[in-house]
Design a protein that fits this description.
Blueprint: E1 2-6, E2 13-16, E3 21-25, E4 28-31, E5 33-36, E6 38-45, E7 48-53, E8 56-57, H1 67-77, E9 86-90, H2 97-103, E10 108-115, H3 118-126, E11 138-142, H4 145-148, E12 157-162, H5 176-185, E13 186-195, H6 207-218, E14 221-226, E15 231-235
Helix pairs in contact: 1-2, 5-6
């Protein structure tokens, strides 16, 4: 067993055996994995915890050293002005790396991030690199983003990061109705990033093109696919 790090207040010691991450607090050691209809697990990837569900890695690391670098690239692509004083929505929190990176930008005053899974929310609370998710300028919301956004005011967000699970796991997050709701809560000139992944092309589907069309129908313009990020940037006129 090798020590990985400690929590910021020193109350939790994190160790790893190369396969699992453990958290020790008050003499009690907890392995950071759990079952909740699916198997959820934290493990290290280039010394950064990543989330796996049923053995499938949830973060994009292809062409990136760690998922932290991916988050930085996504946020950079949003081109947030330093004086924007913007509100940003991260629709699918996960371990919160993208929400945390967004919150660090000088032009962002508040980040709202949503997570439907109790298991993921629990692991994020134990993950040492997710500690700042509970900072004053980040609001983590537990629940289904499809229902949560119905209660948001119109023209509420200047930026949206939509990084959903693959289509087969959450088709509602790729629906035209959902994109119309995203458009409703966007301010004019709002910029959105939509991760689409690469799954589906081998089966005769092209999720990228389907999403581009739905974004266009919903009212977004300047739609551009970025291969390295496996996602789409678009702007609301």
């Amino acid at each position: 067993m090798k020590e990985y790090c400690k929590s910021s207040d020193g109350s939790i010691t994190y160790t790893t055996d190369g396969n699992f991450i453990y958290a020790e607090k008050d003499g009690i050691s907890i392995r950071l994995d759990l079952f909740d209809r699916h198997y959820y697990k934290l493990r290290l990837y280039n010394n950064v915890p990543i989330l796996e569900i049923d053995g499938i890695r949830m973060q994009l690391v292809k062409d990136f050293k760690t998922p932290l670098d991916y988050s930085k690239a996504v946020v950079k692509g949003l081109q947030i002005p330093k004086n924007a004083n913007a509100s940003l929505l991260d629709t699918c929190m996960g371990l919160g790396y993208t929400a945390i990176e967004a919150s660090r930008q000088k032009g962002v005053k508040l980040v709202t991030t949503c997570e439907i899974s109790d298991a993921v929310f629990t692991l994020a609370k134990w993950n040492p690199l997710s500690e700042t998710l509970w900072n004053k300028n980040i609001v983590p919301m537990k629940g289904d983003v499809v229902e949560i956004i119905k209660n948001f005011d119109s023209s509420m967000f200047s930026f949206i990061i939509h990084d959903p699970p693959r289509f087969s796991h959450a088709p509602q997050l790729y629906s035209l109705e959902f994109y119309k709701e995203l458009k409703r809560i966007c301010k004019k000139q709002a910029r959105i990033f939509n991760y689409v992944g690469s799954v589906g092309k081998k089966k005769g589907r092209n999720i990228e093109k389907e999403v581009e069309k739905k974004l266009s129908v919903a009212g977004f313009k300047n739609i551009k696919y970025v291969k390295k990020l496996q996602g789409i940037f678009a702007t609301l006129p």
